[in-house]
């Protein structure tokens, strides 16, 4: 379901019972092109249950940010038993010359690999405080 950006945009027109408008589709294609599809798909599927009117680009991006945050919260790193009590995320290694150095712990490296594999942007898609109308 929703294999690409065009399908996501078409879904919105259908869900909000609007006739597709070429100009609106072109703007949405341009404005949403950088949003990862998995995030956009989750946002588009959630929007009709969340608001009554056809969403603006900004409202879609807010929904995308909420979807991104929902996925990021599952990627919490916790320090392992090796590093938890001393230097969370770091481990002491001895290099070939016999010098003790700090290196990233295996638990931290595994977490970073999970984050990269998830394909979730680490930067916000849109600032949520602006969306809520709050002053910066
Ligand atoms: Zn560790």
How would you portray this structure in words?
- The radius of gyration is 21 Å and the shape is elongated.
- α1 packs across α2, α1 packs parallel to α3 and α3 (37-50) crosses α4.
- The two termini are 38 Å apart.
- It is mostly helical.
- It has a two-stranded antiparallel ribbon.
- The mean pLDDT is 92.
- The chain folds into 2 domains: 5-74 and 121-131, no CATH class; 76-119, no CATH class.
- 51% of the residues lie in helices and 7% in strands.
- The chain has 6 helices and 2 strands.
- It has helices at 5-15, 22-32, 37-50, 57-72, 106-118, 128-131, and strands at 90-94, 100-104.
- Bound molecules: zinc ion.
- Residues 79-80, 82-83, 105, 107-108 line the site of zinc ion.
Which key phrases capture this entry?
136 residues, mainly alpha, two-stranded antiparallel sheet, binds zinc ion
